[in-house]
Write a sequence for this structure.
């Protein structure tokens, strides 16, 4: 029997077995297999803009547990690894790295810097996932900056359009004025702070004034309705009347909505497009118009 070495070279053994698994295609998805049921693992591709941190280690462990379990249950497992090469995290990291803003240099040069940054971190993250021992089929690896990926996403868009699922409309988004781009809900960091409540008089058509309380007076030009709670007896006589929007020549209707809190401020609120998610909900529910008073800057 061969004697065990006095020193165990973990890195050498890991690398040897990882190369063996890849060469033998142990985790390879069989495209020609028509007998076994397919189990596809559609993981959200990570941004390759930093190290493979412990949160990703935890998530990929979950994915790998499922992949291995399904293989043992007889499934033909499709377990690709993708990289989300686009998006704000990559742009921000490149700006920090080179001490620039993306608008400081030509678009093609900034894109080149982003591609180089992404490739650098894909290499590091791929090595980390491989060392973690995840049973990924690396033959199905993809990058969102590859032309073949663009072709597939464009095809998906065309198919959805032909089925009538694509339409053009107005909808609020999270917008970063510094980066001049839309950002996803997952990229928004919320802070709790104490704001000032402003009390503003709105002139009711032929019937005095109503005092409105708001923390966002800058959105007055985008006011499309004024709302009160239907059970608030103080304002029943005003429901259905028109009210003048200060600083504008417009009049809007006074409506009722169950979501209005009679205890907040004066119990009278303006509905703007868009102040918050409550405004989004109210505008959609009452089919109110949309006015954009804040631009990209």
């Amino acid at each position: 029997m061969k004697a065990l070495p006095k020193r165990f070279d973990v890195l050498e053994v890991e690398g040897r077995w990882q190369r063996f698994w890849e060469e033998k295609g142990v985790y390879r998805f069989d495209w020609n297999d028509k007998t076994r049921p397919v189990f596809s693992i559609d993981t959200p591709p990570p941004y390759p803009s930093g190290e493979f941190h412990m949160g990703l280690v935890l998530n990929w462990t979950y994915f790998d547990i499922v992949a291995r379990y399904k293989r043992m249950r007889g499934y033909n497992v499709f377990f690709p690894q993708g990289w989300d090469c686009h998006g704000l995290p990559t742009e921000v990291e490149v700006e920090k790295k080179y001490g620039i803003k993306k608008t400081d240099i030509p678009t093609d040069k900034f894109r080149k810097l982003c591609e180089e940054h992404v490739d650098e971190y894909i290499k590091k993250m791929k090595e980390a996932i491989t060392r973690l021992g995840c049973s990924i089929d690396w033959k199905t690896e993809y990058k969102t900056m590859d032309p073949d990926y663009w072709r597939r996403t464009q095809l998906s868009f065309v198919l959805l359009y032909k089925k009538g699922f694509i339409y053009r409309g107005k909808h609020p988004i999270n917008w970063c004025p510094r980066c001049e781009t839309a950002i996803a809900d997952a990229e928004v960091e919320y802070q709790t702070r104490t704001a000032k409540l402003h009390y503003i008089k709105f002139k009711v058509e032929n019937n005095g004034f109503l005092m409105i309380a708001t923390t966002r007076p800058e959105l007055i030009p985008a006011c499309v309705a004024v709302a009160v709670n239907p059970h608030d007896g103080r304002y029943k006589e005003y429901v259905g009347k028109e009210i003048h929007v200060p600083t504008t020549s417009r009049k809007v209707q006074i409506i009722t909505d169950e979501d209005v809190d009679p205890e907040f401020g004066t119990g009278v609120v303006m509905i703007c497009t868009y102040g918050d998610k409550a405004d989004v909900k109210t505008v959609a529910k009452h089919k109110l118009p949309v006015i954009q008073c804040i631009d990209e800057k």
Summary: The chain has six helices and twelve strands. Helices lie at 10-24, 54-72, 88-98, 107-132, 147-162, 277-286. The CA atoms of residues 204 and 243 lie 4 Å apart.
